[in-house]
């Protein structure tokens, strides 16, 4: 990684942490955006708690979609489950065609206000990238490697666990990362149905036409998404180095 | 897979005695829903929780019998029939039976002339619809229809649903009651929804295409442009809408012409600008990817034939890259149709107005009045553009 990029990343992280822990020190920056003496920094809740709550919701949804999408990906690439491939593909695609707001709105009467409808919407929306990447990863294992594994006397299960999945891991992780980043932004919509998160700050800004609130809610969410994507990518590079074949 | 295994799979797939695993799951879910969940819910007004009613309670004997017989036939088909055409036909017959049963329940339970009672489809209705929908989807994917057939099928389904709605078949169901109250506004918001979604797509195509070509021709620009567009994507929609309200409001205040053109801080303008910004990435990225895929030999041959640089671009490169670019357009259109919903929060209008008003009043029927058309629109757009991409891909091959 080039050094300049690292410095930028660390600076962005420092900025995010500073803003979440000491928001009031940024008040002078946002003051010009307010009118009639409105507060420049969100004061109806703790920004750090809201950010963590949002991150928690997003991670929980991503964990659920990863479990289902990877499981489905494994199932449809086995000989016994091959007949479900076209259907699961269609379903996962439909999952992303449904606008998250619509899913959210329809889920409210079923499960009530709060985190749950957001979790459902994020779960459905996050399936596609993970499923597609799992499929590509499992299907593009070099046939020679698979034959060698069978030749060594590995059972189908051993081959899956110690050859196919490890080889597909980088692609699967990339899918999870993509789904996480999309969902960090999408999660803000959850605040329209009372889920805890930075969306609350944005909505408060929209309701009281306070641009400072809208801007800080939006920037914090964006910063969080970028850092998450970047941080996970760096972590992957570190963890996966010994596994790659070349 | 060895040859023997392959044969074994094929034989078991064709055998009539083996139960279809997907069919078994769907039939079990559908049957359980019919037994334990209400088919419709009777509400004395639009926001109270209602009384559950089962299928047998709400239909006259012959109607309940007919509906049950049709459902039993689809269940049998789901379990044992392997011919995909028969499966599809019985799935569609099941969907029609459930829809008509709900409509009949609405007619039967509504007191004559009453405008306050609401008959809402219940849990069993939705579970049956999902199961039958999955059954139909599975049968369709097994038939592997070509792009033209898929679009025709979509058009026919929409036309059929349109005829039933226009005829008033579902007029006594809760969602249509909400429609009856809001008919004029519904037409206006639907038009606004389409205007916002397609308008921002058109603007993004107009700017994104040249920008993509530029990025392709000048590789040095590429990382900067794509990174900027990627960063824009991470800003949540409601925040971007909100952030744009301030500068557009200031513009309207400073330039009277802008105000007269409808460019204001509140309303459609910030929504269009935000959607335009979101739409740029897929279009620029796919234009770059599509142009990159064009073989150098084709470009050199075109140059050799004496084409000018402009001719090579418009007659060779862009034509060959069209399927990939259209895939970007598909992503943008589906994304826009969904995101316009959020524009209602900043006074931009669109069908999202019903969704958020419904959430506010905890009136689920109003939410559905907005959500069902949005989902239908997004789904139709995805299906149509997918078919178009496939046709172009085939023509090229």
Structural commentary:
- The complex is a heterodimer of chains A (246) and B (397).
- Chain A is built from ten helices and no strands.
- Chain A is mostly helical and 246 residues long.
- In chain A, helix 3 (47-77) crosses helix 6 (115-139).
- Chain B folds into two domains: 3-144; 182-396, MetI-like (MetI-like fold, Orthogonal Bundle).
- Chain B is built from 16 helices and three strands.
- In chain B, 79% of the residues lie in helices and 3% in strands.
- At the A-B interface, helix 4, helix 5, helix 8, helix 9 and helix 10 of A face helix 1, helix 6, helix 9, helix 10 and helix 14 of B.
Tally of distinct domains of chain B: 2
Look at the helices and sheets of chain A and give the structural class: mainly alpha
Strand content of chain A: under 5%
Q: Kindly give the count of domains of chain A.
A: 1
Oligomer: heterodimer
Helix content of chain A: over 70%
- Series of secondary-structure elements of chain A, N-terminal to C-terminal: HHHHHHHHHH
Overall mean pLDDT score of chain A? 85
- What name does the CATH topology of chain A carry? MetI-like fold
The counted number of beta strands of chain B is 3
* Computed CA radius of gyration of chain B, to the nearest angstrom: 26 Å
Write the layout of secondary structure elements.
The complex is a heterodimer of chains A (246) and B (397).
Chain A: H1 3-21, H2 27-30, H3 47-77, H4 85-97, H5 100-111, H6 115-139, H7 143-151, H8 156-186, H9 199-207, H10 211-240
Chain B: H1 3-14, H2 21-36, E1 40-43, E2 51-53, H3 55-58, H4 61-80, H5 84-109, E3 118-121, H6 123-143, H7 147-167, H8 174-217, H9 222-234, H10 237-254, H11 256-260, H12 268-293, H13 296-304, H14 309-343, H15 352-361, H16 364-396
Antiparallel strand pairs in B: 1-2, 1-3
Record keyword descriptors for this entry.
A: 246 residues; MetI-like fold; 74% helix; B: 397 residues; mainly alpha; 2 domains; three-stranded antiparallel sheet; 16 helices; 3 strands; flat
């Amino acid at each position: 990684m080039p050094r300049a990029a690292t410095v930028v990343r660390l600076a962005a992280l420092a900025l995010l942490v500073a803003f979440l822990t000491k928001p009031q020190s940024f008040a002078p920056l946002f003051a010009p955006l307010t009118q009639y003496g409105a507060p420049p920094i969100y004061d109806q809740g703790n920004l750090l708690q809201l950010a963590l709550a949002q991150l928690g919701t997003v991670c929980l949804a991503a964990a659920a979609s990863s479990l289902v999408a990877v499981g489905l990906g494994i199932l449809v690439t086995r000989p016994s489950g091959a007949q479900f491939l076209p259907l699961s593909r269609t379903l996962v695609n439909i999952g992303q065609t449904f606008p998250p707001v619509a899913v959210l709105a329809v889920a409210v009467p079923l499960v009530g206000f709060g985190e749950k409808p957001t979790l459902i919407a994020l779960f459905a929306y996050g399936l596609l990238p993970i499923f597609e990447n799992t499929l590509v990863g499992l299907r593009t294992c070099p046939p020679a490697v698979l034959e060698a594994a069978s030749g060594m006397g590995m059972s189908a299960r051993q081959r899956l666990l110690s050859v196919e999945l490890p080889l597909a891991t980088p692609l699967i992780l990339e899918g999870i990362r993509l789904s996480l980043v999309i969902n960090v932004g999408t999660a803000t919509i959850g605040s329209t149905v009372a889920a805890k998160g930075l969306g609350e700050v944005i909505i408060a800004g929209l309701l009281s036409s306070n641009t400072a609130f809208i801007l800080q809610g939006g920037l914090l969410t964006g910063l969080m998404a970028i850092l998450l994507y970047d941080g996970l990518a760096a972590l992957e590079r570190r963890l996966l180095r010994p596994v790659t074949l070349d | 897979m060895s040859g023997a295994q392959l044969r074994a799979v094929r034989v078991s797939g064709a055998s009539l005695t083996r139960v279809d695993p997907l069919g078994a799951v769907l039939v079990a879910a559908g049957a359980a829903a019919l037994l334990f969940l209400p088919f419709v819910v009777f509400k004395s007004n639009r926001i109270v929780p209602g009384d559950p009613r089962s299928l047998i309670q709400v239909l006259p004997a012959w109607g309940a019998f007919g509906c049950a017989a049709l459902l039993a036939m689809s269940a049998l088909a789901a379990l044992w029939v392997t011919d995909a055409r028969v499966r599809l036909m019985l799935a569609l017959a099941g969907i029609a039976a459930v829809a008509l049963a709900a409509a009949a329940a609405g007619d039967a339970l509504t007191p004559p002339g009453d405008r306050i009672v609401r008959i809402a489809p219940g849990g069993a209705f939705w579970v049956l619809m999902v199961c039958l929908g999955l059954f139909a989807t599975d049968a369709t994917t097994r038939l592997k229809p070509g792009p033209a057939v898929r679009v025709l099928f979509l058009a026919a389904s929409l036309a059929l649903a349109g005829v039933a709605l226009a005829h008033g078949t579902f007029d006594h169901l809760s969602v249509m009651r909400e429609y009856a109250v809001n008919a004029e506004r519904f037409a206006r918001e639907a038009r606004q929804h389409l205007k916002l979604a397609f308008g921002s797509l058109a603007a993004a195509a107009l700017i994104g295409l040249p920008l993509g070509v530029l990025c392709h021709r000048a590789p040095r620009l590429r990382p900067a442009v794509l990174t900027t567009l990627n960063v824009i994507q991470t800003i949540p929609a409601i925040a971007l809408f909100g952030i744009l309200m301030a500068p557009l409001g200031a513009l309207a205040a400073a330039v009277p012409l802008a105000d007269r053109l409808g460019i204001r801080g509140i309303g459609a303008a910030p929504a269009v600008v935000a959607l335009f910004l979101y739409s740029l990435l897929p279009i620029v990225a796919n234009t770059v990817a599509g142009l990159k895929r064009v073989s150098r030999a084709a470009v050199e041959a075109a140059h050799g034939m004496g084409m000018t640089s402009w001719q090579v671009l418009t007659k060779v490169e862009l034509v060959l890259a069209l399927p990939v670019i259209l895939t970007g357009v598909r992503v943008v259109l589906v994304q826009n149709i969904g995101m316009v919903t959020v524009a209602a929060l900043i006074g931009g209008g669109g069908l999202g107005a019903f969704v958020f008003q419904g959430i506010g009043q905890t009136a689920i029927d109003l939410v559905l009045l907005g959500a069902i058309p949005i989902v239908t629109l997004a789904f139709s757009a995805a299906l149509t553009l997918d078919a178009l991409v496939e046709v172009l891909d085939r023509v090229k091959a």
